[in-house]
Design brief:
The chain has about 230 residues and is α+β, with helices and mostly antiparallel strands. It is elongated. Strand 10 (about 205-210) and strand 11 form a beta hairpin. The model is unreliable at about 165-170 (pLDDT under 50). The protein is built from 10 helices and 11 strands. About 40% of the residues lie in helices and about 25% in strands. The chain has 2 domains: about 1-145, Jelly Rolls; about 150-225, Arc Repressor Mutant, subunit A (Orthogonal Bundle), CATH 1.10.10.10. The strands form 3 sheets. Strands 1-2-8-3-6 form a 5-stranded antiparallel β-sheet. A 3-stranded antiparallel β-sheet has the order 5-4-7. Strands 9-11-10 form a 3-stranded antiparallel β-sheet. It starts with a strand and ends in a 5-residue tail after the last helix. The longest helix has 27 residues, at about 120-150. The chain has helices spanning about 5-15, 25-30, 85-90, 110-115, 120-150, 150-160, 165-170, 180-185, 190-205, 220-225; strands at about 1-5, 30-35, 50-55, 60-65, 70-75, 80-85, 95-100, 105-110, 175, 205-210, 215.
Length: about 230
């Protein structure tokens, strides 16, 4: 995590996403900007958090830790979204694992300031309720799809979700490969099942491997398979 002391950049994010309409000037001046690198943990299960975050750049991967020690992919989060909307107001410990897919910028509001100054602000509370409703809808939808959609569709959606927008414009993706055992775990399948799906996608010339990276050869076919489950 790196703090970015750029007042102009902070102000541009505040204006771009309409945050100026939610808070008073006192709160706006207290917002800090942090950069998290790919794979770096923003929240970890069981910890007490210090900040309420606004995602303003990048994409986040959200995993849920099960009681048996396994993890399950819940969804991916894009700007403009918030993190800590459940934990901070309710004074709850974190139950998810959140990390950036690529380098991400997050505006941060100290949790104590948020609790003291924002929970009696009608504009902020309305904003919070709207976001919680959307998060509940997308998470429950994602969990249902995890149970009903075939692994091929889930893996295709995962590949699309972790690919960068820059490459998506070219319809050719280079994905930094995570261990396949980790991917199989968060998709709720075995390593052998995932290997069979990867083999099938390679035979169909939808993906290939190069220098330990997955290359998406046919983005449109992969997108059609995926149904964009985790977006």
């Amino acid at each position: 995590m790196k703090k970015i002391n750029d007042v102009n950049l902070i102000d541009s994010y505040i204006k771009k996403f309409g945050i100026v309409k939610i808070f008073e000037q006192e709160i706006l001046k207290s917002l800090e900007l942090f950069e998290f690198c790919q794979g770096e943990l923003i929240y970890a299960p069981g910890e007490d958090i210090e900040y309420f975050y606004f995602l303003v750049k990048g994409k986040l991967k959200i995993l849920f830790n099960l009681s048996n020690g396994r993890r399950l992919l819940l969804r991916f989060s894009n700007p403009f979204s918030i993190i800590g909307d459940v934990e901070v107001p309710g004074k709850l410990k974190v139950k998810t694992e959140i990390s950036p897919v690529d380098n991400a910028h997050l505006l941060a509001l100290p949790k104590n300031l948020m609790r003291e100054k924002c929970l009696d602000n009608p504009k902020f509370l309305n904003f919070l309720v709207e976001n919680l409703s959307y998060k509940l809808y997308t998470t429950s939808n994602s969990m249902a799809l995890n149970l009903s959609y075939p692994l091929k569709a889930r893996f295709a959606s995962y590949l699309i979700s972790i690919s960068s927008d820059e490459f998506m414009k070219r319809r050719v993706e280079e994905i930094r490969s995570t261990k396949l055992t980790e991917i199989s775990e968060i998709l709720g399948c075995s390593y052998r099942q995932l290997s069979r799906v990867i083999k099938k996608l390679k035979e169909e010339k939808i993906i290939s491997f190069e220098d330990k990276k997955i290359i998406i050869e046919d983005f449109e076919k992969l997108k059609n398979i995926s149904g964009e489950l985790y977006e």
